[in-house]
């Protein structure tokens, strides 16, 4: 498993192929491998397609994958930070270097289509779409049912990754779900380019089609590493896609019921979810816990970072962890929103995920949730013992509770929520008195607390049609109510796309 991220020559060529030009949706230049060459190789050597798929997964944590040299451009977890900051749950409490400040926390990027932070997620997710399209075409196309299990699993993963990419594009580039609103171009073939915006309903229907196909294709797939999408992860992505539409709750509940009942993943325990007794005087006294190991049983989808991964200063860990040598240790502090922290009960184990010292400039940093296990302040510059989490089984319990509550199945909603909270609190009996909107509000609050810093707050904010109100430890817009569908919280189609895509250009005239 430690060598899984040694990208093959083909994978490296593919990534260059989909990202080398300013017009990032143009056809491949002739000096790189073509769709036909990959298809021909794949017919006789499935390892070629597997290597290409490995390259796609590697894009998820590659710096510069959003087309810039910015130090907040490093794949999926970079855009998780964008979302967590836009939602207000992650505060930029100290800003010495300026990353995230103007573009994200001061909302300049969502309000200015020329800002690079509009361009980065667009570029990144469409690179993944284009790469997935190449693999899908090489295995036989969108309607193919490959003869071998190996190619079935490759096709299923590629379809799931394409749907995942379109989901985040739809979330970031549409203020709120409106099926008739034209929002994005859709590309389903490697040769597709410069398409017009299509209605959100078209995008969501394609996501569902891809994911239902992936779930079928991935049945029986025993993955070799957690960075790969398996059946349960594809089901989890589909649950998010359905929940975002606001009227598909029975399907969300059925999916999450199935994942909970039939997957091997377990809720992170009290010992796993936080480092015990988090104070500022035990830096060099490790006591375990924390979110740094992909082998944690509660992680459904994540990546095992090693020396082969080449991840260092420009990374999620560099931006979030005080104990990694980078920005979070030297003055760009990311902390939990002070008002959200105040809502965590004193006896809740998750209180220990954060440094609670109001006299320290590091106050409310995630010292007990995300940290290098050696706990050397501003420690290693190369990420070796730290991993990245994309999805946890806890998310499925929370989505299950949310779906049940929206279906007026309050008892089942309370049961799903209490199953999770039993590992966080000594007493969950207070849930017995909650129903209706009060129960929905509690599920939303627990989602924000449980998944803090994991990139899910933005999705939950939109699903719950919430209003963002920043606490006192933010550097801007403190106390200002900002609704979930505000222009400040949604990106614009970037200038580069408008300039280089005639179909988009015409639509915007």
TrEMBL record:
Protein family according to the UniProt entry: Belongs to the SusD family.
Keyword Amino-acid biosynthesis: no
Span of domain SusD-like N-terminal: 112-239
Residues in RagB/SusD domain copies: 383-465
Pfam families recorded: SusD-like_3 (PF14322), SusD_RagB (PF07980)
Lineage, opening ranks: Bacteria, Pseudomonadati, Bacteroidota, Flavobacteriia, Flavobacteriales
Claim: Signal is one of the keywords in the record: yes
UniProt protein name: RagB/SusD family nutrient uptake outer membrane protein
Localization of this protein: Cell outer membrane
Keywords: Cell outer membrane, Membrane, Signal
SUPFAM superfamilies: TPR-like
Main localization, broad class: membrane
Coiled coil: none
Source organism of the structure: Salegentibacter maritimus
């Amino acid at each position: 498993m430690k060598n899984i991220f040694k990208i093959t020559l083909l994978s490296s060529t593919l990534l260059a192929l989909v990202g080398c030009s300013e017009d990032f949706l143009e056809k491949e230049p002739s000096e790189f491998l073509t769709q036909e060459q990959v298809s021909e190789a794949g017919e006789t050597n499935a390892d070629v397609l597997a290597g290409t798929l490995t390259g796609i997964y590697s894009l998820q944590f590659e710096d510069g994958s959003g087309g810039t040299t910015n130090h907040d451009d490093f794949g999926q977890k970079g855009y998780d930070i964008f979302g967590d900051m836009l939602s207000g749950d992650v505060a930029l409490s100290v800003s010495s270097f300026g990353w995230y400040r103007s573009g994200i926390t001061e909302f300049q990027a969502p309000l200015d289509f020329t800002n690079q932070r509009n361009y980065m997620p667009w570029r990144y997710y469409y690179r993944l779409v284009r790469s997935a399209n190449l693999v899908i075409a090489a295995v036989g196309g969108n309607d193919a049912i490959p003869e071998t299990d190996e190619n079935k699993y490759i096709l299923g993963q590629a379809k799931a990754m394409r749907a995942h990419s379109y989901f985040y594009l739809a979330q970031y580039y549409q203020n709120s779900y409106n099926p008739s609103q034209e929002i994005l171009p859709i590309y389903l073939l490697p040769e597709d380019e410069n398409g017009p915006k299509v209605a959100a309903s078209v995008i969501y229907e394609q996501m569902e089609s891809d994911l239902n196909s992936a779930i079928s294709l991935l049945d029986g797939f025993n993955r070799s590493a957690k960075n790969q999408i398996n059946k349960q992860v594809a089901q989890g992505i589909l649950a998010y896609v359905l929940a975002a539409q606001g009227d598909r709750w029975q399907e969300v509940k059925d999916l999450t019921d199935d994942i909970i009942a039939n997957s091997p993943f377990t809720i992170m325990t009290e010992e796993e979810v936080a480092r015990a007794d988090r104070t500022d005087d035990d830096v060099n006294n490790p006591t375990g816990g924390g979110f740094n190991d992909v082998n944690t049983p509660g992680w459904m989808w994540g990546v095992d970072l090693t020396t082969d991964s080449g991840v260092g200063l420009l990374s999620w860990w560099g931006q979030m962890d005080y104990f990694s040598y980078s920005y979070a240790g030297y003055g760009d502090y990311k902390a939990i929103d002070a008002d959200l922290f105040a809502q965590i009960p004193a006896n809740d184990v998750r209180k220990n995920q954060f440094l609670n010292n109001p006299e320290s400039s590091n106050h409310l940093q995630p010292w007990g949730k995300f940290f290098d296990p050696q706990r050397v302040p501003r420690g290693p510059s190369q990420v070796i013992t730290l991993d990245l989490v994309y999805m946890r089984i806890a998310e499925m319990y929370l989505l299950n509770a949310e779906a049940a509550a929206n279906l007026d199945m309050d008892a089942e909603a309370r049961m799903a929520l209490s199953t999770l909270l039993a590992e966080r609190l000594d007493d969950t009996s207070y849930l017995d008195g909650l129903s209706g909107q009060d129960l929905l509000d509690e599920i939303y609050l627990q989602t924000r607390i449980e998944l803090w810093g994991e990139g899910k707050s933005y999705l939950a904010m939109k699903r719950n049609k919430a209003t963002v109100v920043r606490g006192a430890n933010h550097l801007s817009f403190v106390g200002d109510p900002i609704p979930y569908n505000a222009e400040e919280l949604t990106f614009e189609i970037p200038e580069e796309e408008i300039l280089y895509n005639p179909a988009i250009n015409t639509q915007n005239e």
